[in-house]
Design a protein that fits this description.
The protein is mainly α and 74 residues long. The chain contains three helices and no strands. The two termini are 39 Å apart.
């Protein structure tokens, strides 16, 4: 069994470790810690992903820079 846990370090508690111990009782486990991809929300949201795909296609077709302001994403 394999599992991935994504959690903000502010939310790490001893309960997390206890949960891991319950998921893998009496086992040797490997724990890797690395920053999560913070842009994953773009592709996890269908509206953002669709907009991104359209803009990539437009760029590839026209080979022009596409200017985006943060307000365009709201």
């Amino acid at each position: 069994m394999e599992t991935t846990i994504r959690i903000n370090t502010d939310n790490l508690t001893a309960d997390i470790l206890e949960g891991i111990k319950k998921m893998f009782p009496h086992k040797t486990v490997e724990i890797t810690i690395q920053p999560a991809d913070e842009t994953e929300y773009i592709v996890s949201d269908s509206d953002y992903a669709s907009e991104l795909a359209e803009r990539i296609e437009e760029y590839n077709t026209k080979k022009e820079t596409i200017k985006v302001s943060p307000n365009d994403l709201l």
